[in-house]
Amino acid sequence: MKRYGSVIGLNEEMKAEYIRLHAAVWPDVLKMIAACNIRNYSIFVKEPENLMFAYFEYHGVDYDADMAKMAADPVTQDWWKICMPCQAPLATRKDGEWWAAMTEVFHTE
Predict the structure, then answer these.
(1) How far apart (Å, rounded) are the C-alpha atoms in residues 17 and 9?
(2) What residue ranges do the domains of the chain occupy?
(3) How far is CA 90 from the centre of its chain?
(4) Which of 19, 44, 29 shows the shortest CA–CA distance to 78?
(5) What is the pLDDT of residues 43-55, one digit of tens each?
(6) How many helices (H) and strands (E) does the chain have?
(7) 11 partner at 20 to 30 Å CA-CA among 19, 20, 40, 80?
């Protein structure tokens, strides 16, 4: 298992919509997340800065293949189309990132 953390901005004018969407995530999106070996997935928001932090644990053996599987799913693509306008990617993210990856510096169990 590998832990992942990432960060992105949240557009102020879309904040309520984003929170509403995530109060009732589409069941097929949740099924795809699980099918791609993602567990313990959480998104937090920090106000008033409107930064979101996502955390999940990956339990698979081929992360790239699982992420490609998720990205190819038509329902997930539709979900992303309505969520992405709510998000404000960080200017400092790496090429190819939407959510900016974070480096784990501490963990305890």
Answers:
(1) 14
(2) 2-101
(3) 14
(4) 29
(5) 999 999 999 999 9
(6) 4, 5
(7) 40
Query: For residues 79, 84, 87 and 90, what is the CA-based torsion angle, rounded to 10 degrees?
Result: 130
Q: 43 is written with which tokens? A: 């998104």
Identity at 37, one-letter amino acid code: N
C-beta atoms surrounding 89 within 10 Å: 14
pLDDT, tens digit (0-9, with 9 covering 90-100), for 76-94: 999 999 999 999 999 999 9
DSSP lists the bridge partners of residue 4 as 56
Range 2-101 has CATH code 3.30.70.1090: yes
Average pLDDT of 10-14? 97
